[in-house]
Design a protein that fits this description.
Blueprint: H1 2-14, H2 24-44, H3 51-64, H4 73-82, E1 86-89, E2 95-98, H5 100-110, H6 113-125
Helix pairs in contact: 2-3, 2-4, 5-6
Length: about 130
Amino acid sequence: MTRRYVAVVLGLLLLPEVAPAIDVVSLLRRAAEYRKELSRIEASGRTASLEQLLRRGNELASALKPVIEQLSDEDYASVERDMRGYLVNREEVILVEQDTRFFSKLAGEIGTAQDRLYFGYTLKVRPNGYWPAT
């Protein structure tokens, strides 16, 4: 019984770590949808709330962070291109974070008064994009 228990424990310890399955197609589709929505808002030239766009981008960023290192180079380049307004990096530091400079500028151009207040504040807290002020 003891040998069997030890064998089971050793077997479990020696099993390779199983990564969760990545639905790359879904992530790439969502990134493309985000890009299209951002382009639509920018092209409209009208005042528009950025809240839903930011929410969509933040949800996607959260989904991308745990898997960004596993994307192919082509898929990674696609995510970088589509996630305008986000700092995307997988070299040394994993980042998929909103760029406060981008959104503050966008809010100043087409955002609502609430957007300008919110992004103006976030720009003070994170003046270099993602890194907090020191």
